[in-house]
Amino acid sequence: QVQLVESGGGLVQAGGSLRLSCSASRPIFSINNMGWYRQAPGKQRELVATISSDGSTNYGDFVKGRFTISRDNAKKTVHLQMNSLKPDDTAVYYCNVRGQFVSTYDDWGQGTQVTVSS
Question: Residue 57 gets which letter from DSSP?
Answer without folding.
Answer: E
